[in-house]
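Just curious. Protein, please.
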Amino acid sequence: MYAILNDRGHQYKVREGDLLQVDQLAVKKGDAISFDQVLLIGSESGSVKVGAPTVAGATVSGVVEDHIKGEKLIAHHRVRTNSLGRRRGHRTKYTVIRIKTIAG
């Protein structure tokens, strides 16, 4: 069974047991989390439930595994006339969630 869920404007396709990496959430490691904006639920036999816009009564639940940082991204700005430049780095923070159940 798989589901497509919406989390704060991002859509993710998940299966039971998958690790999902989302933008940082304000929850502690080991806490249970539930997503109720499920857009689609499909099974291995080929049956599909499509929501309008969400599937009524469907939820995806999981457990917070970890909080991590992504790769470092470098932004470089250079002004050609002055030989002037500025370099900045950024690492996005993510929350890793293990999907336990898909109900719907």
